[in-house]
Please model this.
Amino acid sequence: MKKLGFSFLMIIVLFVNSFAQKNQSGQLKYSSPSSQNFSIERLNRIDSVLQQHVNNKWCAGAVALVARNGKIVYHKALGYDDVDSKSLLKKDAIFRIASQTKAITSVGVMILYEEGKFLLDDQISKYIPDFNDLKVLDKFDVTDSSFTTVDPKREVTIRDLLTHTSGIGYPQIGSPEMNAIYAKLGIGGGIGTENTTLSEQMEKLTKAPLFHQPGERFTYGLNTDLLGYLIEVISGMSLDKFLAERIFNPLGMHDTYFIIPKEKQSRLATLYSEEKDKTLKKINPNSKANGLNINYPNNEKTYPSGGAGLSSTILDYSKFLQMLLNNGEYNGKRILSRNTVRMMTMNQIGDLSISRATNKFGLGFEITTELGSSKFPNQIGSFNWGGIFSTSYWVDPKEKIVAQLYLQKYPNSYGDLHNKFKVLVYQAIND
Model:
């Protein structure tokens, strides 16, 4: 009798474990906040804070999403898409996600890594030979943007690119030296770069110096655009087709594009800026701001920027993040192995510091350290990033949380809303 009871108990345990594993890789589903131990009353504080920003005209509108254990407990749009016409912002609005593209391209790189196409410490020149003669900046002349160089101590590796430790910088938002040198060479920042191709831009990048020795510092730059070109070279496919075939289609991300199809272009969220007094300013979609064509997601182009070119919905990107939280699997489709996800979401830069000195960086993500977790309530090991137009995300593996907040505003003097949102999510946990 005891043996029969034990056997029955084991069957129940195996069934529960099997169900849990299947559920872990299942689709995101809507559920009540209480089912995932969230207080409805406390979650409503998110509404109040977002509405305050709308009422004060600090932003036009915002979309936020919170999921726990694969269950969406909060997904709302507040405020306006167009403040002039008072048209409301919708949950399925398509946003310029800019640097949130980096995580997707990094996953694309790791898909090829898992296929044995390369090792992370391989030199990039092994696959793109034009990068075999990079130099390091020595002296820079501000009067004419001329410069001298020294030899690198070693070549740039694929790992350097994934961790932004290669010495490659960013045009327009980088240091004065970066901005001047890249402008002189005709190197764009990736977002909306027109009248060129990815291969042409990467060829120009070979003429620019590295801004420090490879591996010696964290410098945010065009590393992921170069990784996008690496994907094209190794896969034999254009970056947009590769990402669609290997990531977007398997995950059901049907609203994520480098170029939004005509039938969906009306869903592109309106982009805002600020007047000198920090009041809200609507940007004409047909205008240029700082040389950027604001309507770039709707325009034909031949440069798919792996670092900043995608537009997406908050729900689409949540599927991508949930896949990572599920250790590489979503809806029965395995994109990466769990150990590859582990590598991507652990400290890969050792004692180096990123611009937010409290945290570290993995292979495409900022990683929350013990010190970082003391600053905000997300747990150690959480990973995150965002986009320049005021979008942000984080994943907390310990709390099983995926959370995002999307606005469309640049610059944004009230960017602390993203950290307030983080506080508001965690204070609503009721377990």
Notes: Confidence is low (pLDDT under 50) at residues 10-24. Residues 2-24 form the longest helix (23 residues). The first strand starts at residue 29 and ends at 30. DSSP finds twelve helices and 19 strands in the chain.
